[in-house]
């Protein structure tokens, strides 16, 4: 969850190359996957609202069928994860080359790097497109998916917020996604207060929002999920963990937007 996100500065130096390529209009073949992803996301938002519109249940329970829908999306992304993993794995190999490598090996690696750089727009745009399409098929909005993703991977399973080999600065998560998550909890607290059904959880939820407001880098429930939420997710722990994709984590929850009359794409 990176500069997942600061307008295409998505957590890896190579993404800078990609964003430059996109901004200068490097070709329809590069732009098409991103544009397709944007189109499907707009369908999602028309049906389920924006990412920050999601309102978690007031009791903290996540119904089993919603987690199954989430897992359906994660399953659909397996292929994209493998492609992205292969691309980043190649650049890791390049970093491991040393002075003992022959000139031929270095030339071969550089040529291969160029090929992988040109594959990246299609891979990253394709990931967003498959994610958005799978969400439509599963009947799940991006907000609900984001909420379950963060609580499952970063709160319950304590995954690294961004894989260290993709990190280029000290900012781990995007401002936008953090704001989105805080807004979700505010929705939850607002609905809980209106219902007046659980004063104890109301206090817990209020304190969690205060903690997030006081720490820009914090994510919801990093110190432990509410019991009802943990009880909802725990039975699916193994399946959720199996579908974790570290290489794609920097942009797993990102949103692509068209700019410059459709001639550029930004991601955050």
Q: Uncertain segments of ≥5 residues (pLDDT<50)?
A: 1-26, 163-173
| Main beta-sheet strand count, sense and barrel state | 2 strands, antiparallel
* Cα separation of the termini: 10 Å
Secondary structure: number of strands: 2
Query: What is the structural class?
Result: mainly alpha
Q: Which outline best applies?
A: globular
Number of domain units:
1
Going across the major beta sheet, what is the strand order?
1-2
What Rg, in angstroms, do the CA atoms define? 20 Å
- The fraction of residues in strands falls at under 5%
- The level of helicity is 55-70%
Q: How many DSSP H or I helices?
A: 10
Helix and strand run: HHHHHHHHHHEE
Rounded mean pLDDT is 80
Outline the structure in words.
The chain is an all-alpha fold. The protein has one domain. It has ten helices and two strands. A two-stranded antiparallel sheet has the order 1-2. α1 (13-23) packs across α5, α4 (78-96) runs antiparallel to α5 (103-138) and α7 (175-195) packs antiparallel against α8 (199-214). It is globular and about 50 Å long. Residues 1-26 and 163-173 have low confidence and may be disordered.
């Amino acid at each position: 969850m990176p500069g997942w996100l600061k307008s295409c500065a998505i957590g890896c130096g190579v993404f800078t190359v990609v964003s430059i390529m996109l901004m200068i209009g490097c070709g329809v073949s590069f732009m098409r996957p991103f544009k397709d992803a944007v189109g499907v996301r707009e369908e999602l938002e028309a049906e389920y609202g924006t990412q920050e519109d999601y309102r978690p249940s007031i009791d903290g329970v996540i119904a089993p069928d919603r987690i199954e829908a989430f897992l359906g999306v994660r399953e659909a992304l397996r292929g994209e994860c493998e492609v992205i993993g292969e691309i980043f794995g190649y650049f890791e190999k390049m970093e491991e080359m040393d002075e003992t490598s022959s000139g031929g090996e270095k030339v071969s690696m550089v040529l291969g790097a160029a090929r992988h750089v040109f594959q990246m727009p299609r891979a990253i745009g394709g990931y967003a497109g498959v994610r958005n399409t799978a969400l439509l098929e599963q009947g799940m909005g991006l907000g609900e998916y984001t909420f379950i993703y963060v609580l499952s991977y970063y709160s319950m399973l304590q995954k690294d917020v961004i894989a260290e080999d993709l990190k280029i600065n000290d900012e781990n998560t995007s401002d936008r996604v953090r704001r989105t998550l805080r807004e979700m909890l505010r929705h939850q607290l607002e609905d809980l207060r209106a219902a007046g059904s659980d004063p104890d959880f109301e206090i817990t939820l209020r304190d969690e929002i205060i903690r997030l407001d006081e720490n820009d880098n914090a994510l919801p429930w990093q110190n432990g999920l509410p019991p009802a939420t943990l009880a909802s997710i725990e039975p699916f722990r193994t399946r959720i963990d199996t579908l974790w994709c570290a290489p794609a984590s920097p942009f797993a929850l990102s949103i692509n937007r068209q700019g410059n009359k459709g001639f550029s794409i930004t991601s955050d």
